[in-house]
Amino acid sequence: MIRRSRAVRLSVAVLAMGLIGAACSGSSGGSKTSSTGTITVAEPSDNPGDIQARKQLADQFMKLHPDISVKILVIPAEGYDQKVLTLIAGGKPPDLFVSGDVQIPNMVSKNYAYNLDTFAKKGNFDLSKLYPQIIQGLTFNGNLAGLTDNWDTQVMYYNKSMFQQAGVSPPTASWTWQDFQSAAQQLTQGSGTQKQYGAVFDPWFAPLYSTIWSYGGNITSADGKTCEINQPPAIQAIDFILNLYKQGLSPSPQAMSQQGQGAEQIFLSGRAAMMIGSGRWAAYDLQSVKRFQWAMAPLPKGPAGRANFFHLSMFAIAHNSQHPQAAWQFLKYMLSKNGIETTIGNAQGLPSIPSLVKDPAFANSALVKQHDTVKPMLQSLPTVHRAPNIVAFNEFQDKLDAVMDGVWSGKQDPKTALDAFCKSVGPLLQNGSAAGA
Amino acid sequence: MAAVPEVGTAPSGAGPAGGVPAPVDLRPPSWWKRKGYTRRDTVAAFIFLAPSLIHFMIFILGLVVASLVISTWQWDLLTPPHEVGLHNYATMFFHDPLFWTSLKATLYFVLLTIPTGIILSLALAMAVNTKLRGIVIFRTAYFIPVVSSMVAVAVVWRWVFNNDFGILNWFLGLFGVHKIDWLGNPVTAMPAIALMSVWKGLGFTMTLFLAGLQGIPQHLYEAAELDGAGRWKQFVHVTWPLLTPTTFFVSVISIIGSFNVFDAVYLMTQGGPGNSTTVYNFYLFNQAFRYFHMGYAAAMAWILFLIIAALSFLQFRFLNRRVQYELG
Amino acid sequence: MSLVEEKQTEASEAGPKPVALPPRNRKIGRKALAYLALTLLAALALIPFLWMLSTSLKSLDEVFLFPPKWIPSKLQFHNYTSLWHDFPMSTWIFNSVKVTLSVTIGVLITSSMAAYAFSRINFPGRNILFYMYLGALMIPGWVMLVPNFVLMRKLGWIDTHWALIIPAIGQPFGTFLLRQFFLTIPKELEEAARVDGAGHFQIFTKVILPLAKPALATLFVFQFLAIWNEFLWPLIVLNSPQKFTVPLGLGYLNTAHSTDWTRLMAGSVILLIPVVILFTVAQRYYVRGIALTGLKG
After folding, report:
1. In chain B, which stretches have pLDDT less than 50?
2. Residue C67: is its pLDDT beyond 50?
3. Residue in C closest to B216 by C-alpha
4. What distance in Å separates the CA atoms of residue B6 and residue B9, rounded to the nearest whole number?
């Protein structure tokens, strides 16, 4: 989900709104093919870097294709997915729109985006030049819902300085959740406002699901029809997280909301030694930190190995777009070597095309040179786990969030709460909606 | 609603049988003469009515009917609708616990706001109902919250309720009360929103009470005073009984207003924490524009309509009887 | 209700006679007490707004002081200017003004015309139509929400200001309010004009409308405030920030930048300025209209 996964970059996000209308307006002269006209590209407002890069991309694209003009439509990140859907349902679709991994089952089953597979076949576009995991992650029921020039996943951040001071050996790629917990115990010190937490674990769905998967659990069955988050492995994973709060190793979600500070702010201010809950995007905010050294590591392993939520913020073509061909041209350009080089310096994740990881445009960007934000990502690539196949994801997640509020605050026992939850979402998963026939 | 009986007494003297539709025949029928209708007037009337009436037919009547039809569909706006009959209503009542949760949350909100609102606004009206210099300035002050946008109000009340540096915790801290995370705690979130709503609506209900108070004949107080009744007795025996229609009226309006609560929840808690402030309309909104269940949302809106219609009807009945009682 | 309404206007100027004359010193004591109570309550009503104003001029550090600091040590006007810099504030204000005035004027036109027909012309079907209008007052707007969205979509008005203006320019409430007032205008005035050969149109524009200025003002104030403050419907039909109204823009800031307190408060002040001005100038009309709003479901 885009809103949540990037919500942390709000500090600079305000700039984005200033860019509205700064969209490019090239000539829309010649009309030799059907792929002419003005295309609108919808983007959430909370990632100014992306928007800036996309604008550059659009400028270059329009030089190559003077018959197509590209307009960037910045939509408030809050409720972004709903807004885009409203525009599509309302008959005013953006031609291309950014969407998130969790929306794919809904997109495909409601058929509101083109299957890009057919475009690729017709246009002789070789999909195999992208990481196979990406194509798999973007495909649902044989439909390629979107394409992306970069990928991201859940990772762990740690405060190197704190580890050194406490003489605790830093995380490695073979760490387990037990290693994580014992390190957190060693690093938790002090109390009150001076307290230093061993870790800060933000239990929103991406890290929560990652942990559940690493314990061998599931959110739903593979077909998305049966709720399995109340099964023993999932409960064990939840108990593990809950214990971090109970033992005071991590601030609880309640404590975070009371202080009005997110996990990232707590980590940034040097009050926690490790942070779980972000992807590579967090590195952008962390790079300005001078007070301590930090590093990135893959998520710890669970009893069933490592599992890390696969963040894919992709572009899709609206099914009722007036200029699908022109939109495809833009998408193709975005995925060309030239296109990726333009945007990758600012992208939240790693380039979608393996060879471009070594490309100077990427390898020489500040974030890659000064902090190792590539190796832990590549170590995590084999264990990326795609979002669950839930068609009514928003509704499912809203209900789950409400239940988990009670669980994290200790008011409700996980097993009881999730048994009731699974019972209540039964019809939703079966029919795609609570109001289903 | 009080105005309904006046319809028949319009100065131009419309008869009670005015509901007969206009004829298509070019010549006016004979009964037109009896009623004093002329073709010239009728044509003029419909020209004057046209903009409003056409709008009414489309945007009220048309939409209400459409809403009823949509409520029997299962429709996500993206794929063609399915006709499902009363299925949405059945789901709501028997298979959707959140529907009941949201209804209960709304009733809780009503319960929190109405008695407090009534008592406070009556007290305020009695305080303002005096001949004091500068009273208009005070009334203006009480009104600023009423006319202010909920968006601005929500912003500032998020600060009032802020756990760390909000004024409410600061104030309670003076009495040694520990900090409370008003909007972040499922127990206090709803009372917090209710408190804000009462504060915002007070000036409005106060004005209604003021009108009621000023409708009480002075001689009744004078008589009571002669009988040796003190302030409290005057209130119990004169003010309160004579104010009953107003109180009832204010209650119904406030309840209806409380059933419509949405902006405050959307802007301050988004229904959380843990659905504790998921009121009916917030859930309805989510069903329609977050989950895209148009049929279900329309059905929910109809249930809301029935609840509000029942309340309005109750009030109408009561006021009618009251009026008759007083005349007889 | 019309009775209440008339009472209201005289009340706001004078208030009733005191009940009886208590001894002089007791009276003074009571007055002082009344003032004290009134001031306390006024303070309660206004404190949040004072805080809004003060915070809008603070630096971010001062916002987080506890206990709260009421007077900023240095006035930070850039909280306001940066709103203009980072957001299309001028566009939002322009949109709000455009939509609010269009709707308000539209409502005045449709309502006054319909009210004229209902109050001054005798025609078949009048009562049944009027009852329909009254009945419509009880329908919660939520019933129309979904079909209205569907209609806007059919018309291609999603993400346009038409969707805010056209569905709002008819108001049974406005018709009702004006009709009640028109009924109080003596019939003789109209008949005099008729003798001079005036038709309905002349009577409407030359006799009724000039006399109905207070009622039109009441409706104007009501509509203006209602539309200016509207949040839900714009939230549903508008998507691109260039189309936003001020409440929607601020609502967006409220959720997306929830800790950007100084600028949120500055935005709130901007949103409130027209409201406070209009209300202070036209308080009389607004208060008069309240007695009638109870009819609005």
Report:
1. 1-20, 323-328
2. yes
3. C16
4. 5
Q: What is the pLDDT of residues A371-412, one digit of tens each?
A: 888 999 999 999 999 999 999 999 999 999 999 999 998 889
> How much is the pTM?
0.85
Q: Could you give the dihedral angle defined by the CA atoms of residues B169, B175, B176 and B177, in that order, rounded to the nearest 10 degrees?
A: -40
The β-bridge partners of A295 are: A158
Of residues A79, A258, A395, nearest to B184 (C-beta) = A258
CA angle at C97 for the pair C95 and C101, rounded to the nearest 5°: 120
Q: Tens of pLDDT along B157-211? A: 998 998 888 889 989 999 988 888 899 888 999 999 999 999 999 988 988 888 8
From A92, A4, B238, select the one nearest C158 (Cα to Cα): A92
Contact of A419 with A425, CB cutoff 8 Å: no
- Report which secondary-structure segment, H or E, holds A275: strand A274-278
Of A146, A18, B190, B1, nearest to C180 by C-alpha is B1
The whole-angstrom separation of Cα B46 and Cα B49 is 5
β pairing state of A308-311 and A37-44: unpaired
CA distance B135 to A9: 50
Q: Assess whether the previous peptide bond of B16 is cis (omega < 30° from 0).
A: no
CA dihedral C91, C96, C102, C108 (to 10 degrees): -160
The predicted pLDDT at position C230 comes to: 95
Q: Which residues of B touch A (CB under 8 A)?
A: 74, 76-79, 82, 84, 87-88, 91-92, 95-98, 162-164, 179, 181, 184-186, 271-275, 278, 286-287, 289-293, 295-296
Q: Looking at this protein, which amino acid is placed at residue C185?
A: I
Q: For residue C20, what are the CA distances in angstroms to B221, B226, C16, C17? A: 9, 10, 11, 8
- First-to-final CA distance of chain A: 27
pLDDT in tens, A5-28: 333 333 333 333 433 333 333 333
Alpha carbon separation from C230 to B152, B176, B226, C252 (Å, rounded): 12, 40, 52, 14
pLDDT tens digits, C126-173: 999 999 998 898 899 999 999 999 999 999 999 999 999 999 999 898
Subunit contact C254:B155, Cβ cutoff 8 A: yes
As given in the structure block, the two tokens for residue B220 are: 């009744």
Burial of residue A282 (number of CB atoms within 10 Å: 0-12, 13-18, 19+): buried
- The answer, for C22 touching chain B at a CB cutoff of 8 Å, is no
Side by side, which strands form the sheet with A274-278?
Answer: A200-201, A274-278, A155-159, A294-297
The candidate with the shortest Cα–Cα distance to A265, out of A2, A8, A3, A7, is A8
Residue A432 — pLDDT band, cuts 50, 70, 90? low
Q: Which residues pair with A155 in a beta bridge?
A: A278
**Is the CB of residue A3 less than 8 Å away from at least one CB of chain C?**
no
Which tokens sit at C130?
Answer: 């009027």
Query: What's the token pair of residue C110?
Result: 């449709």
β-pairing verdict for A139-140 and A143-144: antiparallel
Axis crossing angle, helix C89-120 with helix C126-136, rounded to the nearest 10:
150
| Spatial separation of the C-alpha atoms in residues A37 and C293, rounded to whole Å | 50
Instruction: Burial-class residue A147 by CB neighbours within 10 Å (0-12, 13-18, 19+).
Output: buried
Mark which residues 319-378 of A lie under 8 Å from B by CB.
none
